[in-house]
Structures are given as structure tokens and as C-alpha cells.
Amino acid sequence: MLKILKQYKVFFLIIFIFSAISVSLFMNALTPKKRLPIMNPADVNPELVDSTVQHVSKYHTIPDFSFTNQNGQTITQKEYEGKIYVADFFFTTCQTICPRMTSNMVEIQKAFLNDPKVMLLSHSVLPDTDSVPVLRQYATEKGVIDGKWNLVTGDKKEIYGIARKSYLAVKTGSPDELYDMVHTENFILIDTKRRVRGFYDGTKTEDITRLIEDVKWLSENEN
User: Fold this and answer.
1) DSSP assignment, residue 54?
2) DSSP symbol at 31
3) Fewest CB atoms within 10 A around its CB: which of 79, 149, 185, 206?
4) C-alpha radius of gyration, the chain, whole number
5) Quick one: three-class SS letters along 168-203?
6) 23-42 burial code (b ≥16 CB/10 A, e <16)
7) What is the CATH number of domain 41-221?
């Protein structure tokens, strides 16, 4: 028997290698590949979406925009062209979910500090109160890094519009006040083609971990 094994050892080695490769390929075929959805208004809770776009089921993208950041600079889509970015809505005097959201956004900033392809964008839902000096002080206190993370203010109607028609992430406030907004805990992941790729609870550590993983995956696999 030993003599036979020695005689056919090359053959058995080939069979073993072939079997190992076959099992590996079979297991890979059974393992579901990671995918990130492309989100459209029709896919989202209607409470967060303007009625004029709730029917849109494909080809939704973030349109051109223009706001003012914590340094008084005009920030447009050009600063985010070809970037993956995380967007959210907040206000500086919020004492409920905002502190936790801001802390978690800081963690995202740390995770991609040396990756120029990834940026952050936070919109104030109280732009009349959150002036440039107010945003500058808030940015300094929270550790916002210029060029990586923009805190923006601007015309309330435009912020309201982009919140509900584009990012699909803000509820309406008092019906008696025009363009009143109630922000949510949502962090929104946007790809380099301006498409919404996911929503994450900005107050939950597990969602932030998932968001960071999804950004990394998107950076490596986006097409």
C-alpha cells in the first residue's frame, strides 16, 4: 500500500488541490456579495419626503446647491464632486440627539481623516440662528476639520427643499410656519454620482460602525 501511495503521490496531490479549489469556489458562490442599494424617494418613509417627489422611483440624485460654511465660504456641489460624503441635519443649540450625532460624526471624520475622497456635510435646520460666527464657534468646540467637514447655513427655503426633496431625511414642523423643519437622527450616505446609498441612525454606535464599513466598501467598489 505504501508503495502504491508513493507511486501515485503526484496524482493524489493534484486531486487534493483540485478538490480544495472546487470547495473554495463553491463556498464563494454560496456567499452573498455585499451590495448597497440606490435609494429613491419612493423607497423612503413618506413623512421624510416632500410630496412633489414621493412618486420618484429611480434616477434620484442630489441637485446643485449653494450654502455658506463655518468660515463664511460658499460651498457648492463642486466641493463634493467625485466625493463620497455623509450628510446630516442639525442645529447648534439642540440638546437632545444632536450632541450624540455630532460626536459620532467626529468619529467618522477620524476614520477617514487621511482619505481625501470622503467628506462630511452638516446642514443647520435653523439657519437664521446658526450664523457663520455661531457655526465657527461650534466647529471649533467640536473639533470640525476645515476642508473635511462643512457646517452650512443659508436660505431656509433652500435648506428645507434639499432636506426633503434631495436627502429625504427631515420632517415638517409646525404647519403654521412656512418651511419649518424637524431634523431626524439620520446620517445619509451619498456616492460620487450624487446618489443616496443608505440611511443610518446617527445616535447608535452600531450604525456608525456599519456606515464606516459601507463607506470603505463604496470607495473600493463604486461603479
Assistant:
1) T
2) S
3) 206
4) 24
5) CCEEECCCCCCCCEEECCEEEEECCCCCEEEEEECC
6) eeeeeeeeeeeeebebbbbe
7) 3.40.30.10
SS3 category, 20: helix
Distance (Å, rounded) from C-alpha 76 to C-alpha 194? 13
How far is the CA of 95 from the CAs of 48, 142, 162, in angstroms?
22, 14, 24
Burial of 220 (0-12, 13-18, 19+ CB in 10 A): exposed
Q: Are 151 and 122 in contact (CB under 8 A)?
A: yes
pLDDT of residue 1: 53
Distances (CA, A) of 3 to 9, 15, 185, 223: 10, 18, 71, 56
Please give the mean pLDDT across all residues of the chain.
89
Residue 119, SS3 per DSSP:
strand
How many beta carbons lie within 10 A of that of residue 180, not counting itself? 14
Domain locations in the chain as residue ranges: 1-31, 41-221
Confidence at residue 26, expressed as pLDDT on a 0 to 100 scale: 43
Identify the sign of the CA torsion 184, 186, 189, 193: negative
Q: Is a pLDDT exceeding 50 seen at residue 28?
A: no
pLDDT at 176: 77
Strand 84-90 and strand 186-190: pairing? Answer: antiparallel
